[in-house]
Amino acid sequence: YCRARIVAPRRTSLDNRGSSVARGVRLMREMVSEPESRLLCAWQLAVLRFAVTLDDDDRIHALGVAGEVARLGGAADDAFHFFRRTTAELCAAISGRGVDRAAVIRRFLAQIDNVRLKRAFEAAIAKESTPPKLLAGRIKPGNDL
């Protein structure tokens, strides 16, 4: 069971989208019900799955779920295209093609309220950036039983 909640992203000087993004997130947060909460959680899990597999099918699935979340608002203005834009930016950042990869991923992590989901996403992203630690000087047990 997953209860997702949208946290409004912090605006930066590089953010030129205007007030429609913040308004869209605010409306989604105020009007969220149980089915919408499940769909928001499904969106976050779809992005996590793409981060783990880096498969194009998972990227397309995440964009599809983002489209479903965008349709929840019932409006056609830019505020409800937030999820599609965010998913496209996230997928590009995760796959290493994003312009400001670290900032995009940091913004997404700041919006995740579920601690376990946040840790899983951090681990999926970290697998690409840090090499595994090698055990040096491992002591082998002796045969002198």
Q: How would you briefly describe this protein structure?
A:
This protein has 145 residues and is mostly helical. Helix content is 59%, strand content 0%.
Report on this model:
This protein has 145 residues and is mainly α. The chain has one domain. Helices cover 59% and strands 0% of the residues. The chain is built from 6 helices and no strands. Helix 4 crosses helix 5. The longest helix is centred in the first third of the chain and has 20 residues. 23% of the residues are buried. About 16% of the residues have low confidence.
- Summing up helix and strand content along with how strands pair, one would put the structural category as mainly alpha
Task: Please indicate the percent range of residues in DSSP E strands (runs of 2 or more).
Answer: under 5%
- Given as residue ranges, the uncertain stretches (5+ residues, pLDDT < 50) are 6-28
Provide the residue-averaged pLDDT. Answer: 75
Count of DSSP strands: 0
Order of helices and strands: HHHHHH
Largest sheet: none
Please compute the radius of gyration using only Cα atoms.
19 Å
How many structural domains does the protein architecture include?
Answer: 1
What's the structural blueprint in terms of helices and strands?
Layout: H1 20-30, H2 34-53, H3 56-71, H4 82-94, H5 101-111, H6 115-129
